[in-house]
Every structure is written in structure tokens, then in C-alpha cells.
Amino acid sequence: MKKLTLIFGLILNTSFLFSQLTYVPDNNFEQALIDLGYDDVLDDYVLTANIDNVEELTIRNCSISDLTGIEDFIALETLDFANNQITDFDLSNNKDLTFLNFAGNQCTSIDLNQNASLVYLVCPFNHLISLDISNCVDLIFLNCWNNQLTNVNVSNNTALEMILLEENKLTSLDITANTSLIELWCHTNQLTSLNIRNGNNSILGILEAYSNPDLACIEVDSVEAAYGNSNWNKDETAIYSEDCNSVGISDSFIMNLKVITFPNPFTTSTTFSYTLLKTYTAVIKIFNSQGQQVEEIVQEQPNGPHEVRWNAEGLPAGMYYFRIQAGEQIGTGKLVFMR
Question: CB neighbours of 75 closer than 8 A, spacing ≥ 6?
Fold first, then answer.
């Protein structure tokens, strides 16, 4: 009798192991798994044994809104569910993931704290307002453009080679820890601070930092090298400096001061023309191509139009940069001094 009971128990346990199921409530998700051969009946369940060894899963353009069931894909290394309707998901069980693409969904936040093996993260065209990748220390590719991000901390991601964060709402970005970086795309944000002085700007082949109208200064390894790099693009109103603090760039200001310089290029002197909204002490600072200040003009000026003449006699010919601050108004630009 005991022998029969033992045999019966073994049969039950074996039957249970072979019939363990994964709950997949989203019909479009389950249908995609059926199409891939991991299931055969649309009944909200998939045999776990059919999916727990899958290393790569691509389910694009399937109108999926719920990714429940993904937790049993414990061997996944590559997951691509771009262009669906997913608002959130849990990948805490998918610890072997190295590639994740969820572009074109509706996510506002994600938790990647358990995905330390990630190497590639692709998430443009979502609604992300926050992104914590501090545990993804092996990440080399980050593409999260066209979201709602206001801040991204990449200080732990020292292996990063490409960062694409354009068309967000970033106000500051610091890549001083990212010494392997070869491409940085951060245009069309709201940057007031950008520090790319990582000691290895020589390998940064592409910098796209334009369409940041409030960005007055970009901190770099070498001002001369920065201005000489034709693949680096920024707004005309921003300058490069090896120390933006010494330049005196404020972290924030409420409007740009429109400044016209004439003549420019010039051979002896040039004139700054601008209009103040009210009485201010106007401070004009002029820097050479190495970011060193060569002139400062301070004048108390009433509201209205003003013209200030600067004579460059005695200085070497070359490229110069100016910054004019009058209260909350700031204007920057470049000058070409020719002999």
C-alpha cells in the first residue's frame, strides 16, 4: 500500500511539473507567443516549460498593453517589444537581459534595478519622466530620445559609448565620468548646464547640443580642440570653456539678451549693440579661444538701446567670445578679429 501511495505521489508531482502554466492575460501577447510557436491555444495560459529557456523574444507591433507573463522568461537575454501600448512592466526576474528595446510605447517610468547585465537600452518615443540606470554598470548604448526626462544620472555608467537624449526636458547633463563616450546627442532640451570635460574629449566624435537656448557655456577638455571640431554642434550663443564657473555663467536666467556686433569680422574694433529692459549694471566679458578672459567692461546703463565699442588693439588675431550680462538678461556670441 505504501508503495502504491509513493508511486501515485510521484505521478502527481511529475504531472504538476510538466503542466506548470504561466498566466498571460493579454490576448495580443499570447497570440504573439502562439505565432512564435510557444503556445497553441488562446486561453490566457502558456506552458512554462515552453518559455523558460527562451533567450530572445521579439514581439513588435502587436498592440500589446500588458506584459504579464514575461517574468517566466527567466533565460531572456534579448527583449524587443517596440511599438506596442505598454505603460509599465516588471523585468525583475529577467536578470540575464543584455538588450532591451521598448521604443514607441507609453511608459512613464521603469525599474531596471535588477537588470545589471544590460548593455543596450533603447526606449525613445515613450513618456518617461524618470530613468534610473545606476545599476546598469555595463551599459554601452543608451537611446532614450523623445521622452519627458528632466534629469539623467550617468555617473555609474562609465562604459557608455553612445548617449542619445535629444528632445527631452533636461536642464543639466554631466558626462565627466563617461570616458569611453564617442557620441553625445542632447539637442532640443532645456539645458542650462552641460559638462563634457571627461579627460577624453579626443574620442568624442559627435556632439549635438544645439537647440538649448538657455545654455550659455559648455565645459570641455580643451577650448581650442572644441572649436576646431566640425562634428560638434551647439547654439551660437553658447561658448566652450575649460571652466564655466570662471567664465561666470549663471546656471539660470529668464531671457536672452539679443546682441548685434558690427563689424564682425573686424580689424581693430567692434561695437556691441543691445537693448536693456530697465536700468542695469551691464558687464561685458571677452574671452580668447582658450577660454581666458582678456577684457571686462562694466557700465551702469538705463533702459533702452546701447552701443559699446571694444578695441582689440594689442591682442593677437583670432576667434574671441563675449558674454554680456545685465541683471537677468544674458547674451553671448563670437567675434572674429582679423589684422
Answer: 52, 53, 54, 55, 96
